[in-house]
Design goal:
Layout lengths: L16 H7 L7 E6 L2 E6 L27
Antiparallel strand pairs: 1-2
Length: about 70
């Protein structure tokens, strides 16, 4: 499913009724906005953090410093 939207002078867009209904988006629903290449993704926020397992690709954490290594 797709729809074409127009960006308003205030940089706002309207999510079509079909898309809202298919994803269960209602007023005051929170969405995560991110980019992937030249695409904009809007993903409804699920309040249950357990539903995000596997959402991000595995990351290499070997180069990260410990919180105490800042100074």
């Amino acid at each position: 499913m797709y729809s074409i939207v127009t960006v308003s002078p205030k940089f706002q867009v309207v999510i079509s009724k079909e898309v809202r209904e298919s994803l269960g988006i209602t007023a005051h629903c929170k969405l995560v906005m991110m980019t992937k290449g030249k695409n904009i993704l809007l993903v409804p926020v699920d309040e249950d953090i357990r539903n995000y397992k596997g959402f991000l690709p595995k990351m290499d954490l070997s180069g990260l410093r410990d919180h105490n290594d800042r100074f």
